[in-house]
Design goal:
It contains eight helices and no strands. With 139 residues, it is mainly α. The mean pLDDT is 87.
């Protein structure tokens, strides 16, 4: 059976954050102390939109993955452009969003400068992690 810290790490791939939350700190407040490097570490653990990345990602992206083959191909291509531009995967709170909505948001965010985009990606990852923490069954 996974430790509480390991279960939390599955929500946000940062050991310092997982340890703090396992020790009783509020998950949202614990994120306030993360450095940009901590966030980037957590981002590296996420799959691209449309790729398999575990049960959570599959469930969260389920509506988006019902998009047309053309939209899914565009998402894959735009994901690659995004990664070349920003150096990390495109992160978005995908739950309940269509593939077309996600593609439009990806294209909008490609116009951001690097600092603005890092802030947007961190906000989206925060939403993802907090939703996953709220869905954890008690240990």
């Amino acid at each position: 059976m996974a430790s509480n810290e390991d279960r939390l790490y599955a929500c946000l791939a940062n050991r310092r954050w997982a340890r703090s939350v396992a020790a009783g700190q509020d998950p949202d407040r614990a994120m306030d102390g993360l450095t940009d490097d901590d966030w980037l570490e957590a981002m590296r653990a996420h799959p691209r939109i449309g790729e398999r990345g575990g049960a959570d990602s599959t469930r969260e992206q389920s509506r988006a993955m019902q998009a047309s083959a053309e939209t899914l191909a565009s998402l894959a291509a735009e994901n690659r452009r995004y990664e070349e531009r920003f150096g990390h995967v495109f992160l978005i709170f995908a739950s309940g969003r269509s593939g077309e909505e996600i593609l439009a948001e990806l294209r909008r965010r490609l116009k951001n400068d690097a600092a603005t985009e890092l802030q947007e990606a961190k906000r989206e990852l925060r939403k993802i992690a907090l939703m996953r923490v709220s869905n954890l069954a008690p240990a």
